[in-house]
Amino acid sequence: MASDYRGKNKLHFGFRYALSGLKVAILTERNIKIHFIAMTIVCIMGFIVGLTNLEWAILCLAIGAVISMEMMNTALERALDYVEPKHQPAVGIAKDISAGAVLVTAIIAMVIACLFFYLNCWHKEW
Ligand SMILES: Nc1ncnc2c1ncn2[C@@H]1O[C@H](COP(=O)(O)OP(=O)(O)OP(=O)(O)O)[C@@H](O)[C@H]1O
Q1: I want to staple 13 with a disulfide (CB 3.0 to 4.6 A). Which of 5, 58, 62, 93 is the partner?
Q2: Where does ATP bind (predicted)?
Q3: Which residue, by CA, sits nearest to atom 13 of ligand 1?
């Protein structure tokens, strides 16, 4: 389909490939499924405690950052597995750093979510 992609429908095909990547990531990656479940729980809790518009915007950015980072981590892992299937310390370090980036983003998102829930539960005039 390379010729189609290079043709006038480039934008359409680019979007289709991106959606297909998202679908593969959700279906095949356990961690991404966990992130989506966590996102659903956080959103339900957000509705329950009544987050403000600004809090929702910040939370959406944090959730988007975690899921995007996990997808980039998956892409890197797959590319490295293809390029270097054998055990190679440099590959291990690259994968660990990439996984560390996901962890940092996920911790920050969790802190933001906990802070908003705390502020809305204990410091709100009901
Ligand atoms: N080719 C390799 N050479 C050296 N170490 C590797 C290699 N592949 C994986 N590792 C080590 O094993 C760890 C797990 O790698 P793997 O590719 O299995 O990721 P994963 O467990 O599927 O990660 P995730 O849970 O994020 O999908 C890496 O973080 C790295 O430390």
Answers
A1: 5
A2: 17, 29, 77, 95-96
A3: 92
CATH for 30-122, options being 3.40.50.970, 1.20.1560.10, 3.40.50.2000, 1.10.287.3610: 1.10.287.3610
Cα 37 to Cα 75: distance, rounded to the nearest angstrom? 21
Q: What is the C-alpha radius of gyration for the chain, rounded to an integer number of angstroms?
A: 19
What ipTM was predicted for this assembly? 0.89
- Which one of 77, 86, 87, 96 would you pick to mutate in the ligand 1 pocket, going by the greatest count of ligand atoms within 8 A of its CB? 77
Distance CA 39, CA 120 (A): 18
Pocket residues: Cβ below 6 A from ligand 1: 31, 73, 77, 84, 87-89, 91-92, 95-96, 99
> DSSP assignment, residue 86?
S
* CA-85 nearest atom, ligand 1: 1
**How does pLDDT run across 62-103, given as a tens digit for each residue?**
999 999 999 999 999 999 999 999 999 999 999 999 999 999
